[in-house]
UniProtKB/TrEMBL annotation:
One of its GO terms (cellular component) is elongator holoenzyme complex. One of its GO terms (molecular function) is calmodulin binding. It comes from Arabidopsis lyrata subsp. lyrata (Lyre-leaved rock-cress). This is Protein KTI12 homolog. Interacts with the elongator complex. Binds to calmodulin in a calcium-dependent manner. Keywords: ATP-binding, Nucleotide-binding, tRNA processing. GO terms for biological process: 5-carbamoylmethyl uridine residue modification; leaf development; meristem structural organization; regulation of transcription by RNA polymerase II; root meristem growth; tRNA wobble uridine modification.
């Protein structure tokens, strides 16, 4: 398992580097499984992703969440995005450390003039390019990786404007060796990150919150199904003195309840990336789910 962060200016050849490295890894002696996580998987064009800071923050949250889910599957994960903010690369490094896996950064070092030219050529071909204002803003805010930073190390540097990047490129081969080399007590040149007490505690807390959320929402669904099964039309499901009732105007089947539950859990996970954390106790989780159901049923009843 490993996490590879592709980094570089807009239109600097990052996607070519990601695909090339993935192919080289798949064809290596170890026949690695590789997954590329990129912006295109979210079906947004380049300009929508970076039109303003909230949109950019939302994109980074989606990428980070996908990386967090993927690093535990045993594959090498390649993050193909700008990854231009050092604080964000640090967050990705923390995910790798929490998972106890290898980590490296591949930097496409291209001067601004070439990036600007390639962006124009891409737009001229009718492909998805950056608007001029967004391109200039991204170039201005780019934070170059530095190998002395632990979240930028080891750092493999490519120069797509000077040389053709293919599976035989020396830097690609070096990265493949680093990511696939067998590690034993004598290995000195490969570093596998070790989880700290803080990252382990954070993982435990998140897992505990998800467990509480899963259990609490299932109890609410069980209560709705049970009260509907008693016979007769009901307009209110009562859940005890501590929780508000759920108002309904029609029978709610189990498939619909399960769909609403899955959507709620997904929304809670996404909102916790940039908003309030997941509830850590059953009562808070139940109250949020009840509020969500009342909004949904209210909208359906309107």
């Amino acid at each position: 398992m490993a996490l590879v962060v592709i980094c570089g200016q807009p239109c600097s050849g990052k996607s070519i580097a990601a695909v090339t490295l993935a192919e080289a890894l798949k064809e290596s002696e170890t026949k690695q499984n590789v997954r590329i996580i990129d912006e295109a998987s979210f079906h947004l064009d380049r300009n929508q992703n970076y039109v303003n800071m909230p949109a950019e923050k939302n994109l980074r949250g989606k990428l980070r969440s996908d990386v967090d889910r993927s690093v535990s599957r045993g594959d090498i994960v390649i993050v193909d995005s700008l990854n231009s903010i050092k604080g964000y690369r640090y967050e990705l490094w923390c995910i790798a450390r929490a998972a106890g896996i290898r980590y490296c950064v591949v930097y496409c070092d291209v001067d601004e003039a070439h990036c600007r030219q390639w962006n124009k050529e891409r737009s001229d071909r009718g492909e998805d390019g950056y608007d001029d204002g967004i391109f200039e803003d991204l170039v201005r805010r780019f934070e170059k990786p530095e190998r002395r930073n632990r979240w930028d190390s080891p750092l493999f540097e490519l120069y797509p404007s000077r040389e053709v990047i293919d599976k035989s490129s020396s830097v690609i081969l070096e990265a493949v060796t680093y990511l696939t080399k067998t590690v034993d007590s004598k290995t000195q040149d490969v570093r596998i990150l070790q989880p700290s007490i803080a990252t382990q505690a954070a993982r435990f807390s998140e897992a505990n919150s998800l467990y509480e959320l899963d259990r609490a929402t299932q109890e609410i669904i069980n209560a709705i199904v049970e009260q509907q099964s008693l016979g007769g039309a009901i307009s209110r499901v009562t859940l005890g003195n501590e929780l508000p009732p759920i108002e309904i105007s029609r029978p709610i089947g189990l498939p619909e309840l399960r769909r609403l539950r899955r959507t709620f859990v997904k929304l809670m996970g996404q909102s916790s990336l940039s908003g309030p954390p997941l509830p850590t106790d059953a009562e808070s989780a139940k109250r949020r789910f009840v509020d969500y159901l009342n909004r949904e049923f209210g909208g359906n009843n309107a």
